Fold Cob(I)yrinic acid a,c-diamide adenosyltransferase.
Amino acid sequence: MLIVFTGNGKGKTTASLGQAVRAVGRGKNVLMIQFIKGPLKSGEDNIEIKNKENGKGSFEIKKMGLGFVGILGDKLPKEEHAEAARKALKYFKEELAKRDAIILDEVNVAVSLGLLTAEKVLKTVKDLPPEKIVIFTGRNAPASFIEKADLVTEMKEIKHPFNKKKFANADLC
């Protein structure tokens, strides 16, 4: 099953983490590969998800991005970001057979920034076995992802504190 969480609202990564919690609770092994987020710590870096009932299932995060592209003081050449995205996609292909579910966090953004092509990403899920779950997150999901997906949710921003020059509350957002 291919799931896409997209849109300009908050909650795409959070929704994918909710899916991870459910999967681990059912004894599944879940991997999140982060395509953009880099060395800066974020809240999800500090979590552990485990099945309390039987100890089966696992959750792992693999940060493979180099940080936000072209913003927040990023001075890296775009090609370095593209190379990191290609490595992340290769890692996904290597891990797919070993995991029950894999989250490709911000892969939509990697495509919209031109770090990867939609065609190359879709090729990796072309023959996705029905028991596997793959989740694509990030703004600007290409139409081809939406067409291929079994489930698509668009997060819509209605109101955000950033618009009033209030920055994210690290405990909540």
Residues 18-156 form a domain with the Rossmann fold fold (CATH 3.40.50.300). The chain has a mean pLDDT of 91.
